[in-house]
TrEMBL record:
Domain Carbohydrate kinase FGGY C-terminal: 234-419
UniProt name for this protein: Carbohydrate kinase
Keyword Protein biosynthesis included in the entry's annotation: no
GO BP terms: glycerol metabolic process; rhamnose catabolic process
Species: Paractinoplanes tereljensis
Keyword Ion transport: no
Keywords: ATP-binding, Disulfide bond, Kinase, Nucleotide-binding, Rhamnose metabolism, Transferase
Record InterPro entries: ATPase_NBD (IPR043129), FGGY_C (IPR018485), FGGY_N (IPR018484), Rhamnulokinase (IPR013449)
């Protein structure tokens, strides 16, 4: 068996995971886990990027000899480097408020026609407009997305991995290259944007070990890690966010799709990740932090005993995006006391999340003209039995939950394929996952009319 290392940076922790891979097998072990705690300084929310890099280095040391290294992280955020390659300032967190008031010279429908991206306030395009004119922007030579920045530090090679570049709002969804027309219409410097590289390409070497481009957008790797057979499936990559959608061959760029805020992100092997960002487990994570509750299983067990669909809020409301007083914001939206039992508010979050999953799964099918038979839930949320059952009930479809480690698996499988250890298309990689990973099936139950009514209530 060959060994590969996945550096996987998530919103609350980073890990280095070693995958031992044979032609039909993959086994994971976690070499190192480290915290990822954003820091507010001078009124701005930053990623602690050097801590993350140190964690990656420590993890690679602990991983021992491997055939290659692949890096993935959350999307959209970046660091600027100057002409000498020095990092100019700390990368800003996408939950920072700096994009709240940017005005954009290009209309939304034109942006969608070119990039096909859902409108989220933190897309790189809006962050760059906020940065335009600052001394840091003026001094910048290159923009590096987070995994590209780490790869640069490991190898000295500059580049922009395709799947993550597709989340900037500046990549042409058809040509898969930077859109020079959008870049110039926005008055941005074209020279900031490094050459695009594809998953599977060798980037360079770190201490003699190849560093290989993977789906460096964590969601792109997670979608590789969906153990689906055929194409009649929806997926939910469920963690801090729920990324809910379909895998397509072609983008959907209709006006209805734009209005429903569906995105056409670039996937591994030229696929399109047609999906929408749903608020995910972030509100629960934040509320738990504020309650100082760390025992999630106890909380979920109590939430399971609460009545279904009593309090439902629209979790897609951007009011829930930034950190700070999540309990107060949720309680206000639900019309309950902020002193309510955590189990009540937890049930409200999970019911609401399941309703939001239903809405996105339904809309994706309608907008793309593709019906699905099942919903795959991958990522940390696959461990949450209550959420998986509620999602099955809400969608009226079976939920296939797992693997929890879909992102690391997707990262590692793309590396193993590039090394020639494992062969074939995405379907072949997924067949290995079906053989080796634990997948739990949840049948839809509950009261379909009650879910329909709840969905209608939040859709207005
Ligand atoms: C999930 C994720 C998601 C992006 C968000 C910024 O980690 O990459 O796909 O929209 O973070």
């Amino acid at each position: 068996m060959n060994a590969f290392a996945a550096v996987d940076l998530g919103a609350s922790s980073g890990r280095v995971i070693v995958g031992r891979v044979g032609p039909t097998r993959i086994e994971l072990s976690e070499a190192h886990r480290f915290g990822n705690e954003p820091v507010r300084a001078g009124g701005t929310l930053y990623w602690d990027i050097l801590r993350l890099y140190r964690g990656a280095l420590e993890g690679l040391r602990k991983a021992g000899p491997v055939d290659s290294i692949g890096i993935d992280s959350w999307a959209v955020d970046y660091g600027f480097v100057d002409g000498s390659g020095a990092l100019l300032g700390n990368p800003v967190h996408y939950r920072d408020g700096r994009t709240d008031r940017v005005s954009v010279a290009v209309p939304d429908d034109r942006l969608y026609a070119v990039a096909g991206l859902q409108k989220l306030p933190f897309n790189t395009i809006y962050q760059l407009i906020a940065a335009q004119g600052t001394p840091q922007y003026e001094a910048a030579q290159r923009l590096l997305l987070i995994p590209d920045l780490l790869a640069y530090w490991l190898t000295g090679e500059l580049g922009a991995e395709y799947t993550n570049a597709s989340t900037t709002g500046l990549l042409d969804v058809r040509t898969r290259e930077w859109s020079s027309s959008l870049i110039s219409e926005l008055g941005l410097r074209p020279s900031l944007f490094p050459e695009i590289r594809s998953p599977g390409a060798k980037i360079g070497a770190f201490a003699g070990t190849p560093v290989v481009a993977v789906g460096s957008h964590d969601t792109a790797s997670a979608v590789v890690g969906v153990p689906a057979a055929g194409e009649r499936f929806a997926y939910i990559s469920c963690g801090t966010w729920s990324l809910v959608g379909l895998e397509l061959d072609q983008p959907v760029l209709s006006e209805e799709s734009r209005r429903a805020n569906f995105t056409n992100e670039g996937g591994v092997d030229g696929t399109i990740r047609y999906l929408r960002n749903v608020m995910g487990l972030w509100p629960l994570q934040e509320a738990m932090r504020e309650w100082e509750i760390s025992d999630i299983s106890g909380l979920l067990a109590r939430a399971a005993g609460e009545p279904a669909l009593k309090h439902v809020v629209d979790l897609d409301d951007p009011v829930f995006l930034p950190p700070g007083d999540m309990i107060g914001r949720l309680a206000a939206a639900a019309g309950i006391s902020r002193e309510a039992d955590p189990a009540v508010l937890t049930r409200c979050i999970l019911d609401s999340l399941a309703v939001a999953h239903r809405r996105a799964v339904e809309q994706a099918q309608e907008l793309a003209g593709r019906a699905v038979d099942a919903v795959h839930v991958v990522g940390g949320g696959a461990r949450n039995e209550l959420l998986c059952q509620l999602t099955a009930d809400a969608c009226g479809l079976p939920v296939l939950a797992g693997p929890v480690e879909a992102t690391a698996l997707g990262n590692l499988l793309v590396q193993a394929r590039a090394a020639g250890v494992i062969g074939g298309e995405l379907a072949a990689l997924r067949a290995v996952l079906r053989e080796t990973q634990q997948i739990v099936r949840y049948e839809p139950g509950g009261d379909p009319a009650a879910w329909r009514a709840a969905a209608k209530r939040i859709s207005g």
